[in-house]
Amino acid sequence: MTDSMPEDGEPITLRVKAKDWAENHPRTIRFAKAAVATVGMAVVVGVLVPRGTADDEAEFAGHAEGTPGPKDVESAADSTEETEQRKSPDRHTVVPHKRRLKDGREIDVSGYERGGSSEDEDEDPGEAAA
User: Fold this and answer.
1) How many CB atoms lie within 10 A of CB 15?
2) What is d(CA 49, CA 59) in angstroms, rounded to the nearest whole number?
3) Which of 35, 65, 75, 88 is most buried, judging by how many CB atoms fall within 10 Å of its CB?
4) Is 129 helix (H, G, I), strand (E, B) or coil?
5) How far apart are CA 91 and CA 110, in angstroms?
6) Contacts 24+ apart (CB under 8 A), 35-44
7) What is the pLDDT of residue 39?
8) Where are the alpha helices (DSSP H) in 1-130?
């Protein structure tokens, strides 16, 4: 007779075999659980840490060694501003909407035109800023 055929003649199901094996090998089951947990954590760390590191490098690029301090960065920005002028966004209409202020009040904001360069139009600078 084989292991799958008990004395009463009915075959043993896979579930019963697995249950018997697990009861006879608890130490093996514990090691397998630990191995799966360790591999899972390694995968999580391997995937998430490089993404976080890349974000940190981009965010804190000015804080690295050998780079200019915050005061030097501001002066560099000023010199760049003198040589290059920022391009305005395309002209578009802002739809009327509600805005919530820090103190919790809601105010209505009427629609207005925004963007485009003031050089192309005959508006005075005061009207373009409003």
Assistant:
1) 8
2) 15
3) 88
4) helix
5) 17
6) none
7) 94
8) 14-24, 26-59, 70-83, 125-129
- DSSP 3-state of 71: helix
Q: Which amino acid is at 11?
A: P
Contact 85, 118 (CB under 8 A): no
Separation between Cα atoms, residue 12 and residue 1, nearest integer Å: 13
Residues 28-80: tens digit of each pLDDT: 999 999 999 999 999 988 887 776 666 666 666 655 555 555 555 555 555 55
Looking at this protein, which amino acid is placed at residue 78?
D
Cα Rg, the chain, nearest whole Å: 34
CB 96, CB 111: distance < 8 Å: yes
Which range has the top average pLDDT, 71-85, 89-103, 108-122?
89-103
Whole-model pTM: value is 0.31
**CA distance linking residue 78 with residue 84, whole number of Å:** 10
